[in-house]
Amino acid sequence: MKDFSTLFEIVREAVFALGRELAAWKPSGARALFGLEAMLSVALSVVLANALHLSNTWWAAISGFAVMQTSFSSSIQRAVHRVLGTLLGALLAALLGPMIGDRPWLFVPVLGLIGGAAIYFANGSKVAYAWMLGGITALMTMYEAHILVTFSATAAFAALRVAEVVVGTLACVIVASAFHFAPGWRTSILPPGQTHTEAPADIAAPSPALSIEPSPASLRPVRTLLAVQCGIAIVILAALTYVLKLPGFAQAMVTAVAILLLPADTLAHLVERPVVVRMVQRVTGCLIAGVIALALLPLTQGNALLCIVALSVGVWAGCHVQTGSEGASYVGRQFTIAFIMVFVQDHHWSANPVPALMRLSGILTGIVVLACVILATSRWRAATRAPMDAAG
To answer: Model pTM?
Structure first.
């Protein structure tokens, strides 16, 4: 009963936070500028991906959004981490996937090990984003390997995935550089001397109450727990997909990895709440984006200009919520990602909602499975916290 009351409280907080953010809709110069940069980055990603006839335009668009940060140096650092992680993950999967792809008894556990290892090394790491992208890319490419079978086909898929990430990342770097090296653009929007002040919340900001940085040794039990939870969730999802032919496994896997990547101060005081908050906010953002985007798709009739305009407005609105201070930042980020996933089709503009619904169903499936795993491992979580509380 306590778990349900806690869940209800978290859902209520997420809804109220979003309501406060929308009620206090006052775009400052810094927030408007970040939204503009992200909007242009996504639009350029789509244009470049379509010009190059890439298979998954939406993945390039997400890369263009996810890499963009409020400072130029942070965007460049994130770009390097995303490309590096993607390259290494694709290389691992291209070599290993075809070797074991036809043996489910080995293939499925290896997927779980890759996901668990990515979460273990990402949590508490200074290059967490590279670890996360490496794990995600390896899992997505490895899974395709059991369908593609051969080394050449798997390598081609991996190369396409790398190309999509590079195109989106390059678009972000181009836009960020244009704004950074052309200060006249900024001063026309920002008051003199002001720069970006609001940081997009990809991962919740560290708590100011934490004055002592947790030691790596103290975080190890929690990192292990999260890695095991991620590994089990991915194994279950992979097995279900093998048996039931479930669509959207890629997004289910991305969800399992993304939700369990937490900041160091949250790791040091781990309870189930931070993870559940991310789950609830991810679902909230995705559902709102799904409803709005699916309603807009038929109106665009696949017209490229209308699609770009609608996509840009959705990205800007999501970025505005993401950079807010009312507690709905992660809702805004997930809204933007889901809006891109729904609105940008594979390699052309289309009003067909089926691919979008498959991706959204994958996200929801991943959250449900991960929630069940977290509930099943609640006793281990309590045992993990006990020595940490004693040490504190």
So the answer is: 0.85
